[in-house]
Amino acid sequence: MYRKGVIEEVEEVSENLRLFRIRHRVSADPGQYVLIWAPNIGEAPFSISDLYEDVFELLIARKGRVTGYLFERKPNDTIRFRGPYGRGFSIIKGKVMLIAGGYGVAPFPLLMRKLREVGSKADVFLGFKDRSSVIELKSLKDMAERIVITTEDGSIGVKGVITDVIPNSGYDLAYICGRESMAYEILRKIKMDAEVSLERIMRCGLGICGSCALNGFRVCVDGPVFRGRDLLMCEEFGKFWRGMNGLREPI
Ligand SMILES: Cc1cc2nc3c(=O)[nH]c(=O)nc-3n(C[C@H](O)[C@H](O)[C@H](O)COP(=O)(O)OP(=O)(O)OC[C@H]3O[C@@H](n4cnc5c(N)ncnc54)[C@H](O)[C@@H]3O)c2cc1C
């Protein structure tokens, strides 16, 4: 059931953020995710950040036990994973805006490459807490028409949060990835089509267990990427999710 990939390279992007290059041939749409298994610990989902012929990349922020396990892995170690799963972003030809907060930027390199392949032009808006949490990805820089960075303390880029600086209109599509409360605010502000990648507890990844249920959607298979207008119809969106015990709790 698990596929085995070999870690080819681990790049330290910042103290708590690493880019893992894993040797294994996978095919995935931007926004799809894999479930990584940490033996005797558990599983957690991670977006495919980019992929090449027989290598895929994950951009991982250290958080708890699964990411802690991954941070201890070295080149040539084997990791076990399932997927890619879920529905990713759609690729359109036009003028688009990519918006992320924190490690929400993870799926953007592959998304950006696919958008460039069809001739789209993309502006990128990234929000972070402070200078030490800023994630700079060279591949994004090379492909974006422009990148706007905000930090809450103004230590780099524009002082404030991402919702302060994004335009309300003027793009064919906005791609959003980050905290659900951020996505909720953005969708209420902008007047254009949008697609949002949601983060939920995803146990089976197959649409069976219901851990990620959101008003009739199963985020693991119907998402994680949804059309903004569908999310705005969901009473739970931006307000509630299901915790580790499956019960509805405030976000
Ligand atoms: C679709 C999707 C894509 C994601 N992409 C990225 C990414 O590219 N980079 C990144 O850094 N993070 C990503 N995340 C978030 C990442 O899955 C969480 O930060 C996860 O909590 C890390 O596990 P942990 O054990 O280190 O942390 P903890 O929060 O300590 O988790 C404790 C335990 O809870 C379980 N768990 C935690 N979160 C989840 C979850 N969402 N679903 C199922 N079980 C869970 C795991 O078994 C874990 O051991 C993504 C989440 C989703 C839903």
Please write out the topology.
Layout: E1 3-14, E2 17-23, E3 33-38, E4 42-47, E5 50-52, E6 55-61, H1 65-71, E7 78-85, E8 95-101, H2 108-117, E9 121-128, H3 138-143, E10 146-151, E11 158-159, H4 162-165, E12 173-177, H5 180-189, E13 194-197, E14 213-214, E15 217-218, H6 219-222, E16 225-227, H7 228-231, E17 240-242, E18 248-250
Parallel strand pairs: 8-9, 8-12, 9-10, 10-11, 12-13
Antiparallel strand pairs: 1-2, 1-7, 2-6, 3-4, 3-7, 5-6, 13-16, 14-15, 17-18
Describe the fold and architecture.
This protein is of the alpha/beta class and 251 residues long. The protein folds into three domains: 3-85, Elongation Factor Tu (Ef-tu), domain 3, CATH 2.40.30; 89-196, Nucleotide-binding domain of ferredoxin-NADP reductase (FNR) module (Rossmann fold); 198-251, no CATH class. The chain has seven helices and 18 strands. The protein binds flavin-adenine dinucleotide.
In short:
This protein is α/β, with parallel strands linked by helices. Helices cover 18% and strands 37% of the residues.
Q: Which bin fits the share of residues in helices?
A: 10-25%
Q: Beta-sheet strand percentage?
A: 35-45%
Chain-averaged pLDDT: 95
Q: For this structure, what is the CATH class of the largest domain?
A: Alpha Beta
User: Strand count, sense and closure of the main sheet?
Assistant: 7 strands, antiparallel
Oligomer designation: single chain
What is the CATH architecture descriptor of the largest domain? Answer: 3-Layer(aba) Sandwich
Cofactors, ions, other ligands: flavin-adenine dinucleotide
| Distance between the ends | 32 Å
Please give the count of helices: 7
